[in-house]
Amino acid sequence: MLKKLLFILLFVTTLSLITGCDSEVIEGPQGPAGPAGPAGEDGVDGEDGAAGLSAYDLYVNEFPGYTDDVSQWVVDLATGDLVVTITVVLPDRTEELEFMKGQPFSDFPFTAIYVDDTYETPVTDDYILESVTIYVENPYEDYYGIYGGGHETTGMGGTINYMYTLELKEDFNYEIESYFIMGDEVYDFVETGTYELDLINEKITITPDGGETIEGQLNDDDTITIGVKPSQMAPSRTESTLTFTTTSDYAGVYSVTLSGMVDVDATLFLNHMGEYYYMAVPDSDSDTVYENGTYSVDGTVITFAIEGDPTDTQTGTIEAGEVTADFIVSVMMGIRSEITLVLEQDPV
User: Fold this and answer.
1) Region 206-220: what's the mean pLDDT?
2) What's the mean per-residue pLDDT of the chain?
3) For burial by CB atoms within 10 Å, which of 48, 121, 293, 341 has the most?
């Protein structure tokens, strides 16, 4: 019995060794393809979709103030009466705007709107249903005021820092006043003309006296982007973004002549953007004193933060067109002395 068992084990072991060895497999040629199977059955049809909205329904959904039936709507469509024209009377001009019949008045680009030119009877309708004339109370007053900006350019053997303002006046006249320092002098250049505001398209146009119209942009952040001619010598305009100013009450050129062994002409320029430029020019071959930085005003107290070291501040007073503060008047001495400078040129 044991011999028979050993023989079986030997046979199985030998067989496994033989089958585990690599051997060449010979494949026969591909047989012919079998016939195609029968086609499958059609699936079950899906449910019908919901009926789409008609052109009339779509119109009423878009312009919910339209209350006529579909028959009248077809007539209005054929005759062009779905479009209504609103004559808009602005303080400086009249425009015509087109709307769809039934369009909400909330889509109208102005808010203070009236049916009379005395601004006594406001528009109370919720929807635009017919062609009418609407009077708009002054929509421009938020834009009146002074906007400031500037840029630097290379010229005259150095860098010129232009600082300018655009004043939009209530009578639709404008004034651009530009200041720049060249050498030891403060120069200014003034341009005047008329302007228009297109609040619908957020545009501003200015027309210089004797010149061509220039178009600019009313930006969402209440700034104005427009081309500015900073000086009489400038060959072209420079596009600049101007910001509504908050220091207009103090801006200007203040000056004084200090008499002594050497006379000194001291000049302080406060611009509309809260920046100051000071220089003291001696009546001799001595060097000119230059200083600049930023300023702020609280009541009658003016604080100067010197550029390069904002912690280095000087305080003084500004009142009745005079600035009194400590300034350096001589490079050689290098010490500060209290001086009073008087307003001589007011950019406003």
Assistant:
1) 95
2) 85
3) 341
Over residues 207-219, mean pLDDT: 96
pLDDT in tens, 1-28: 433 433 333 343 343 434 444 445 456 5
302-312 burial, b at 16+ Cβ within 10 Å, e below that, comes to: bebbbeeeeee
315 CB-near residues (< 8 Å, 6+ apart): 301, 302, 303, 304, 325
H helix intervals, 33-124? 55-62, 70-79
Where residue 306 falls (left for φ over 0; alpha for ψ -120 to 50; beta otherwise) is beta
Q: Which residues contact 102 (CB under 8 A, 6 or more apart)?
A: 59, 60, 63, 64, 65, 66, 67, 127, 128, 129
- Identify the pLDDT of residue 1: 42
> Shortest CA distance to 329 belongs to which of 262, 254, 252, 250?
262
Contact 134, 113 (CB under 8 A): yes
Buried-exposed string 51-80: b where 16+ CB fall within 10 A, e elsewhere: eeeeebeebbeebebbeeeeeebeebeeee
- Phi/psi class of residue 144: alpha, beta or left (left: φ > 0; alpha: ψ in -120 to 50)? beta
The pLDDT of residue 40: 60
Look at residue 69 in the predicted model and tell me its pLDDT: 95
Is the model's pTM score more than 0.90?
no
User: How many angstroms separate the CA atoms of 112 and 91, rounded?
Assistant: 12
Distance CA 177, CA 167 (A): 8
Cα 216 off chain centre by:
11
Beta bridge partners, 206, equal 195, 214
pLDDT at 210: 92
Radius of gyration of the chain (CA): 41
Tens digit of each residue's pLDDT (9 = 90 or more) over 162-206: 889 999 999 999 999 998 877 777 888 999 999 999 998 999 999
Q: Which residues, in sequence order, are CB contacts of 100 under 8 Å at separation 6+?
A: 62, 63, 82, 83, 84, 128
Residue 73 phi/psi, 5° resolution?
Answer: -60, -40
SS3 92: coil
User: Looking at residue 155, what is its pLDDT?
Assistant: 67
